[in-house]
Amino acid sequence: MTVLETERLVLRPLTGEDFEDYAEMLADPEVASGLAETVSTGAADAWRSLATFIGHREIRGYSHWALVEKATGAFVGRAGPWRPHGFPGLGVGWCLSRRHWGKGYASEAGRAAVAYCFAELGADEVISLILPGNSRSIGVAERIGHTHLRDTEYRGQRVHIYGQRAEGQPT
């Protein structure tokens, strides 16, 4: 899987070595509650979540990357392309450790992921599923160029679908 770099981040494949940081991130109830893919705050669910993203990469050839802060080498979170079985399109998602909220890292990684989807995966449309009321993720979606497209139900939850079309594609 491709490694990307932005101004402040390295986006590299998630590995088992990320588990402790990943589990710590998902142990925060405020982080976990914002995810469209429901996960509890326990280590066992964090393990399954990490394994799902790594497995997705094996099946699809792409997945969320680990976000690593260039200046410190710290694990920031995860972000990237995503299309598990039953997902309503090629998605881009993000999840950051709360100590890294407010630094613009989600938007920075989200823009890189959207560009990757269009340039490398040949996407016509890239979407993000966001829980109603998650104003932080709605703000990220808007900053990366997404607009609200529609609402749907996904895995028993009502979600907003934000997204954007490739240049030259009809809306």
Task: Describe the 3D structure.
By secondary structure, the protein is an alpha+beta fold. It has a single domain, classed as Aminopeptidase. The protein is 32% helix and 29% strand. It has five helices and eight strands, in the order E-E-H-H-H-E-E-E-H-E-H-E-E. The strands form two sheets. A five-stranded antiparallel β-sheet has the order 1-2-3-4-5, sandwiched between helices. The protein has a three-stranded antiparallel β-sheet with strand order 6-8-7. A hairpin with a 2-residue loop joins strand 7 and strand 8. The protein is globular and about 40 Å long. The N and C termini lie far apart (30 Å). The model has no long low-confidence stretch (mean pLDDT 93). GO terms for molecular function: acyltransferase activity, transferring groups other than amino-acyl groups. It holds the Pfam family Acetyltransf_3. InterPro entries: Acyl_CoA_acyltransferase, GNAT_dom, N-acetyltransferase. This is GNAT family N-acetyltransferase. Keywords: Transferase.
Based on the structure, what is the oligomeric state of the protein chains? single chain
Tell me the strand order in the biggest sheet: 1-2-3-4-5
Cα-based radius of gyration, to the nearest Å: 15 Å
Uncertain runs: none
Please name the CATH topology: Aminopeptidase
Q: What coarse outline follows from CA principal-axis ratios?
A: globular
- Write the H/E string, N to C: EEHHHEEEHEHEE
Keywords: Transferase
InterPro entries: Acyl_CoA_acyltransferase (IPR016181), GNAT_dom (IPR000182), N-acetyltransferase (IPR051531)
Protein name: GNAT family N-acetyltransferase
GO molecular function: acyltransferase activity, transferring groups other than amino-acyl groups
